[in-house]
UniProtKB/TrEMBL annotation:
GO terms for cellular component: membrane. One of its GO terms (molecular function) is hydrolase activity. It comes from Agrilus planipennis (Emerald ash borer). It is found in: Membrane. It is a multi-pass membrane protein. Keywords: Hydrolase, Manganese, Membrane, Metal-binding, Transmembrane, Transmembrane helix. The keyword DNA-binding does not apply. This is Metallophosphoesterase 1 isoform X1. Pfam families: Metallophos.
Length: 378
């Protein structure tokens, strides 16, 4: 009886330790290998202010009731919660940017369901006091361009405290958060404000860079080429030239992109680059990683993969450090889901079988010892 009790204690302990490791310790062990990159200041670099540290993730795709069952939603929410809270606790970013597709079914949801998305987002991705959060809109939040209506667009804006296009300035660094769904050039109801704001930003940045005269009511500031943040990638033909650990798998990698569906249109991309002249563009949407030169060959575009394990077996997020003149980037690879499943199989199946084997062996020895005691050999 004592042997059986000890056996079950070991089994329960094994289960508890496996869960503790997979759901807590493993996240810290994996994500602690990632840290903020260091900017190498040069003699010409203005380093009078501290570099800004910010974190970017995209395509969280909080699941809804139409496409998944409740157990899948609970699992994915928990995985993203553990990964995000671990990352924020380890890295302590000053700003966190979410580049659209916060929800998976935002475009189809009713009022109650969308309110549930809003509540879950603020619970899963809660940040410490003092950390700022900014979001952009994705096609799963309000629909693709042709299906957007004023209700779906308006409720996203109100729920996540964002708008079509906004300029954010922090320590002389300019971020342009853009509603890339609106860049179709067809004068739609939510496209006009974005186009108008882009024209205003173009004039403002030209004023700061001394490329144009400033209006009397504008106070000229130190110019820095902006960082563009949006959901859709800039125009590209495919992911064939992407060489990342989290790149798209074959044959998806060589499939042709559809303009205005998989990426921005070519004309919209050229106009956007010409208007705001970004030094860095960061996007999502494709669910796969890619780093490539901007079409202007005067900067790079980084496409981050989905943060949700349902879309990507090896998701990641980006850590950025920037000054008005420089920026550096490090991609943090998150725990691989198959690795976690393998650890669970070992902890829940193979270790208990091993314990059972050892206890059976020990039990047989005791039985044999008792037999020998009462029936000694002659």
């Amino acid at each position: 009886m004592k042997i059986k009790r000890l056996f079950f204690v070991k089994i329960i302990t094994c289960y508890v330790l496996t869960i503790l490791y997979c759901e807590f310790i493993h996240y810290y062990l994996v994500l602690s290998q990632c840290d903020w990159p260091q900017i190498k200041f040069t003699s010409s670099t203005n380093n009078t202010t501290a570099p800004l540290k910010f974190m970017i993730l995209t395509d969280t795709h909080m699941m809804g009731p139409k496409r998944t069952v409740w157990i899948d939603r609970v699992l994915r929410d928990w995985e993203m919660y553990r990964a995000f809270q671990t990352a924020v606790n380890l890295h302590k970013p000053e700003i966190v940017f979410f580049l659209g597709d916060l929800t998976d079914e935002g475009e189809y949801s009713n009022i109650e369901q969308f309110e549930d998305f809003r509540r879950r987002f603020h619970k899963l991705f809660a940040v410490p006091e003092g950390t700022k959060v900014y979001t952009t809109v994705g096609n799963h939040d309000i629909g693709f361009h042709h299906s957007v209506d004023s209700n779906s667009f308006g409720r996203f804006i109100n729920a996540f405290n964002t708008n079509g296009t906004q300029l954010i300035e922090v320590r002389g660094i300019y971020f342009i958060l853009l509603n890339s769904i609106a860049l179709e050039g067809d004068n739609c109801f939510f496209c006009r404000p974005v186009e108008k704001e882009l024209l205003r930003l173009e004039k403002l940045l030209d004023c700061y860079s001394h490329q144009a005269h400033c209006s009397p009511h504008i106070t000229r500031k130190q110019y820095s080429r902006p960082i563009l943040l949006q959901h859709f990638p800039l125009y590209r033909q495919s992911d064939i030239n992407c060489t990342e650990p989290d790149e798209a798998p074959y044959p998806e990698k060589i499939e042709k992109y559809k303009e205005k569906w998989d990426c921005l249109g070519k004309n919209a991309t050229e106009q956007l680059i010409r208007q705001i002249k970004p030094r860095l563009a960061v996007s999502g949407h494709s669910h796969h990683g890619c780093t490539r030169s901007l079409p202007s060959n005067n900067g790079i575009e980084i496409t981050l993969p989905s943060f949700n394990w349902r879309n990507k077996i090896n998701p990641s997020y980006g850590l950025f450090v920037a000054t008005p003149d420089e920026y550096v980037f490090y991609k943090c690879l998150m725990p691989v889901e198959t690795t976690v499943f393998a650890i669970y199989i070992i902890g829940f199946l193979f270790l208990p079988l091993w314990f059972y084997y050892l206890h059976s062996k020990q039990f047989r020895k005791r039985i044999n010892g008792c037999v020998c005691k009462y029936f000694p050999s002659r």
